[in-house]
Amino acid sequence: MLLAVGDAATLALAVAGILALREVRARRVETLAQAFGALERSIAVGAPWLPQGSTWGETFERLKGAGVEADWSRMEKTLEAYEAFRFGGRPDPVEGKEEVAGLATRIQRGVGGHGPKGKSVRTD
Hints:
Blueprint: H1 2-27, H2 32-46, H3 56-65, H4 72-88, H5 97-109
Helix pairs in contact: 1-5, 2-5, 3-4
């Protein structure tokens, strides 16, 4: 009996450690492209009600409408710089990756906001 309790505790710690590492990866990004990649993965897990194939601008509007907290004016400026880099040949933006990675972490944790018809941002 005592062995089973110890095994359960060990398993719980291992799962908590794995989840913590996933969140750290979202925050430890070197480039803005990596931050948007982390955001995309977080949305797939934490906000599956968002339609796939939407532009980042549409996604931001839906997240805002769902009540997800972020500095949306700064996020929009970061998105403009990122799109200028991706599609306009501008230099890789250095600023904004922390905000994007922070949003990814919040969505992954399920913090703030509700999807359509009262669905939580995170459904599990």
